[in-house]
Amino acid sequence: MLWAVFTLIAAAAQTARNAMQRELTARLGTVGATHVRFLFGFPFALIFLAGVMSATGEALPATPLAFWPWVLAGAFTQIAATATMLSVMGERSFVVAYAYIKTEPVSVALFGLIFLGDSITPLSATAILIATAGVIAISLKPGAGQVSTARSTAIGLLSGALFALSAIGYRGAILSLGHPSFVLAATFTVTVGLVIQAASLSLYLALHDPQVLRAIARAWKPSMFAGFMGAFASEFWFLGFAITTAANVRTLALVEVLFAQAVTHFVFKQPTSQREAAGIVLVVVGVALLVWAY
Prior knowledge:
Blueprint: H1 2-39, H2 42-56, H3 67-89, H4 94-101, H5 104-116, H6 122-139, H7 146-177, H8 182-208, H9 210-218, H10 220-243, H11 246-252, H12 255-266, H13 274-293
């Protein structure tokens, strides 16, 4: 059950990182706040990798050709997932945005059916319907414009789907290494992914919006915290992926909804309506039932 400990640590760290990124979005924009976790995260990932190599005495693992498609898929879908997540957090409360994103295990099941031909049992179908009903309950916010609400719902569900693809990509990359040390394999994959993400977004911003890079440099103190927590969370997510399936890790990660509820109440002072609370419960129950069905 070591993967469960890793997942709980990662969930707590990711909640703190997301809260800081949400605050940075107003200053840096969605792309800038997205970039912060990668640009300020990869130096910490390099430190973690050096520490693991020093502790284990192992050299860097050899990278087979199959590693690169997996890690590239994981890296770029994670960039898109983070950007869409921050977009939703700018429109809805912190905890409600989390509820949208935590439909991620449902996306995994649907992708399995569409792309892999995995069967869906009646119990699984019921779980998907329960989780979908929860999302609908959350999105039906009294007094909100239908277009804005529908838009944030769609983006939130897309974000969850992208996070699902990213988890699958990164787990595939870790397993493709075939390294006897799961700690080194996970840490190496984290580092490669963050370097790819930091380099790609830095190049994009340098060419298209260099002012954002200057704004990020001015906001280096909160950005450093977000980067560290991002790298720290990723390290423990990947350790979990190295031990068990992405579905197991992402299901236990639903505790983030509870962490997000606490952040929403105590930090952002945002109330959660009874309808939104009921919807969050339905999402959690539906996703948990879905994984239990497997």
